[in-house]
Amino acid sequence: MHAMAAGERQDMGKCSKHPCPNTQAGEDPGAIEVREGGEIEAKLRANASDKERWSTVILLSSSKEKQELSIPIIMAEKLSLSLDPKKGILTFASPHATQSFKISEASSAENSKPPCLKYQVRVIDAGSDYALVKKTCPKQEYRPQRFYRGTDYYIYDQKTNTMRSIWSASTQIDTSTPFPTAKPEISIRYLKDGYGFDWTGMLPSDNPPLSMSVHNIYKREADQNNRLSLVCYDVTDRRHPVKENEMCENESLERIRN
Question: Where is this region: Disordered (predicted)?
């Protein structure tokens, strides 16, 4: 269960008379639910433990209220996450840095990937300088009789100003199949110079599910210009790591200048 944004709540039990005779203050039951839901969500954002907040508060691209489009990630570090649905930009902000990434693209001739115009963003894990973020795209018709559903997981790394995909699945043909999400849930290990990612499960797609086992390490490395980046190594064979192969997803989100 998660706290619903106002745009996600439904009008329930509307009264035909005003004031409403079925409630103590004559208030519409639907209005009561919206108000009380907002109060619960506000308390979660302000007072819950960090992990409790992640598991209950989801950022929705359909939200209209500014306060529903941001969430404190690590209270002690003043690290927060905010979403600008109109621009499709996700921003991590702390006293140390403000870093933004393009998480949603509009449909265009140049963009061959189906657009995910309605989506949810949720924090799965986080620390003072990183976050594991899940983006979920519910079923949507992006062209006549063309549908898309998908799930993407990203590592955000403050030290390299990077947000890169580590797991992705989608369907575009048979949308009657189970929703394409990771089972078991994706998790990462925080390492001294990066992150470890191990996952074994069935990768959903339009084809029959494929058994997959991923063993990757994402390391901070400096290039010839001494600029840090997050580099992937497939360590399935621990003796012979392979750099940036097909197991690495290889998609990094575009950085947006603040």
Answer: 1-33
